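WARN retry 2 of 3 for item q-0093 after timeout on previous attempt; input resubmitted unchanged.
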Amino acid sequence: MVEQDELEANWSLVASNEQLRRAAEALAAGRGPAGVDAERASGFKYGAEAYLVQVHRRGAGTFLFDPTKIDDFSELYAAIKDEEWVLHAASQDLACLSDLGLTPNQLFDTELASRLLGFERVGLGSIVEQLLGIRLHKAHSAADWSTRPLPDPWLEYAALDVALLPDLRDAVASQLESQGKTEFALQEFEAVRTRSPKPPADEPWRKLAGGNRLKSPRSLALARELWAARDELARQNDVAPGRLLPDASLIVAAAMNPRSKGELASNKEFKGRASRTELDRWWRAILRAKTAEPPTPRPRVPDAMPHHRNWPQKYPEAAARLLPARDALAAEAERLRMPIENLLTPDILRRLAWQPPMELTEEAVARRLSELGAREWQYVLTAPILASVFVENHQ
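OK item q-0093 returned
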């Protein structure tokens, strides 16, 4: 086992447009796929933009790009756009890379591939240790990457994360080939690469953790106004909202419906960095909520699928399809040595069980799975199993 301290991480910090130009020239002259990673300041800053972008290519070296000092990443994109990009858990980084104009045309996701291979632990450190025999220290994974200047130990950590990706990619690709899962992985990578971003929620305050505890119209109005006040302050100061007031504090204030500012301040469960320094702000939000129109109930979507927990009591026919189908897919996933959610996502399975095709044939089930978003390899494997289960339970 090779320890991280035994490795030499040769990297260059790129903090100007001129330095980016030289780095892009070096990367264009490199060989093979480009390892790519990004570091955000999630939990510290309001947005989810990248505060460091790392790129490594064999024969070129490792470059750490500082987006706060660089105006245009187009030359970097031109240098690597025709190469395969190797990321670990790509779905976490593609959005912030896209904001910089960096979008891969070919993707290899070592984390997603590791799931398909059946590894129980798929974090980068774990997979690197298992396949490359290198033990990484993950000391700075939760650091505030908006910090400037970035400390050298953090940069060293970031460089090693990306410098090992091309070698890890080759090791993972070999495992995929030996298990006959290369085509599965390629389809999954393309689905991640081309997936459209989720549209913003119409009423984001409804996603407050613990918000389901609030039942009355007034408490919901309080939650709405407190969320909006926190969001405004967080945006103004470029701070993650939860660092000002955690969701739990907003729920506490909304549930108690305080009669005075003093009553709110006296509640020890109402806490957070800005709970007392911005007390006037929170009280103004509460006063607005007390006189505002309460939120309208969420309209019920016609023909919406009810929660599957209620199926055995209220929709026994759907439950009779879902439960044995899930058991059959679990057996197939075990045979293939992969998590069942990678063989077929639970939501797709539930939607199929809730509204199966009129004809319970393999072809009809495969078409329905495709309509619901399953990849070709998924419906080729699962349609025969599910059609058989549905037919058996229909008799």
